[in-house]
Specification:
Elements (H helix, E strand, L loop, with lengths): L13 E9 L1 H22 L1 E9 L3 H14 L2 E5 L17 E4 L11 H10 L2 H15 L7
Parallel strand pairs: 1-2, 1-3, 3-4
Helix pairs in contact: 1-4, 3-4
Length: 145
Amino acid sequence: MKSSKRSITKYKKQDVSMTIIMWASYCSIMNNAYESLKKELKYKYNINLNLNIYSTRDISDKLDEFLNDAKKSDIVFMYRTSSDEFYDNIELNFKNLVITGQDPTYWNSKLSSKAYLYTAYGGIENFKNLILYLVRVKYNLSHKF
């Protein structure tokens, strides 16, 4: 009897926390993208993704909570605009920070331009791809999602 070996790739469990701040109109789309992705990431790739989403509209009431979450997060993504003045009053020294927005002068990373395209094109699929892109690049994951 011939024995056939099958190669099974097991991924090491990864807990990934991400904090995102963006326009209020993007937040519900981002939340839907996250809800759609989190089970797939957990069961297919053994990645437990935790996402904190903040709206720039409500940030004055939740700034301390945002800063706390951002400091503890593995990835921080900001969609910055010139009308959001609170950015001038905080230190942006978070690990794995990616800033994007309509004005490229705010961009801080080689990831900013592609992240901007995912955001600008909008929709659940593009926001899912944004999350996957940030996770894959920041963790240097070789597997394709």
